Amino acid sequence: xxxxxxxxxxxxxxxxxxxxxxxxxxxxxxxxxxxxxxxxxxxxxxxxxxxxxxxxxxxxxxxxxxxxxxxxxxxxxxxxxxxxxxxxxxxxxxxxxxxxxxxxxxxxxxxxxxxxxxxxxxxxxxxxxxxxxxxxxxxxxxxxxxxxxxxxxxxxxxxxxxxxxxxxxxxxxxxxxxxxxxxxxxxxxxxxxxxxxxxxxxxxxxxxxxxxxxxxxxxxxxxxxxxxxxxxxxxxxxxxxxxxxxxxxxxxxxxxxxxxxxxxxxxxxxxxxxxxxxxxxxxxxxxxxxxxxxxxxxxxxxxxxxxxxxxxxxxxxxxxxxxxxxxxxxxxxxxxxxxxxxxx
Length: 344
Description:
The protein is α/β, with parallel strands linked by helices. It folds into two domains: about 1-135, Gingipain r, domain 1 (Rossmann fold), CATH 3.40.50.10390; about 145-335, Rossmann fold (3-Layer(aba) Sandwich), CATH 3.40.50.1460. It is built from eight helices and 13 strands. The strands form four sheets. A six-stranded mixed beta sheet has the order 6-5-7-11-12-13, sandwiched between helices. It has a three-stranded antiparallel beta sheet with strand order 8-9-10, with no helix packed on it. A two-stranded parallel sheet has the order 1-4.
């Protein structure tokens, strides 16, 4: 594992990204940062201390890459602002992105290269290798969009930021069994607004509210596809849930296993209106996709732009953050190296 991390550090150096390796239990001796317990609050305090030490040295913390799934570097299990939706807590990396533990706007970009649950390090090693050899790709090559019929109007407005809305696949009538995998193969920018459930690996479509959910995309549908360098943004509930899962039971991990450079999604139940005006998760997706159109943008910069854009638009329209908005900012995470430039 250490050799794979060293390889990634060397690859970052060739891209001009200065990198420090910090082991949670050891800290960073030359900055005077001591070791910490492997608990979210302690890790966050350690990162804040490192940021302050860098500033005193005339430097700054620009991004943070967490290596490993929640069994290695735990999610912060944030209190759910919504008391009625069934999520007891919201798995989140937001706590690691600012010195103020209450801040919902990040000071630096945070990304995570996850692995599968359990003792087998194979997936984590493969994802570290993918991150080490990733190169900027044509960010608009073969865009792919897929949404539930219930959310087609909102989804079309978002997808228009990168492609013709009429190219958006709608589920139903499209379902997993009839999906043309050739539409996915070689895609480099993917937007999905499908349903997700806490105890299932597929994402689902739905004809209309209260209609049965129909499987629209499964991890097995990605096997053998070329998704090298692709970036995916998903609004699915639990789309980024990886605790206790592997590439066969998590679409987020399945996308990354196929070579995707980045994945943005929600770890818990996500929210968004079925029709415009856009809100909550829709705004995260819209601003992330817009940011990816900027030249030489990094994954981390695009993710920060998504969060800041969502905050700005929400406060402009309603002057406050309600419970849905707060949860949205907590639950969306970035999987992938935040320093990776994703535009050619």
